[in-house]
Design brief:
Strand content: over 45%
Distance between the termini: 48 Å
Oligomer: single chain
Number of domains: 2
Number of strands: 20
Helix content: under 10%
Number of helices: 2
Largest sheet: 20 strands, mixed
Radius of gyration: 19 Å
Shape: globular
Length: 245
Amino acid sequence: MVALLLWGMIDTTEVLEIKNVTPPLHVEIALVGEVNIKKGTPGKIEFHKYCSEHIAEKVKLTLKADRVYIGLKDVKLIDWHGTPEFDVYLPPNMVMEVEVNLGAARFDIDLGGLTITRFELNTGAIKGRISCTGRAAVEAMELNVGAAKLKIEDLGNISPRLLDINCGVSNLTLSLNGDWSDTCDIHIATALSKITVKAPTELDIQLTTEGFLTGGTQIVHPTPQVRIKVEGALNRVRLRRYRDI
């Protein structure tokens, strides 16, 4: 239903009920503009879009077998009036594999309340945040970003066993706050980037850097909860410890 028409933009919502699907449910999201992803209603995927009518007609929300596709197909990203905005609400009661492909975008992804065996993000020039309100169950994460300003918060509430980050010239802030339930290996491959790691003093970590300017192990713990390895030349890596009260 069209709820609003303003300057050529329309406001619509689609709801897809998920029934009789053998887990994991495969979800692929391919969008541009401003994108928000978070927990929604059990058994449903909700897709809210605020964009031109031309684009709204071409955005697909489809289910085929155990695969959901949400996104743009065969749309040339030119002559858009205004910045499209999309909200995706994923079901909290379903095991999923989630792949997110974003063009030039701003995004906010909250994984709280979701169960994901594998989360993959692929994007170009972006500014975005990944966080976790409450707890999530995510086994592995892979983030492939271009020139980016990226914040990852509440990582302990996500507690992935493996986090791979591949990025170009970026400004990356990695916050290790939250309630850790497992050990985690974090591998960051980048160059010419500014990387800030924020960690509570109560969290045992190991931080190793390899590169022209930052080579060498900075922190070693015999039994670290979190192991971080940064590879690439000309990176600036800063560790900030704080007391979690």
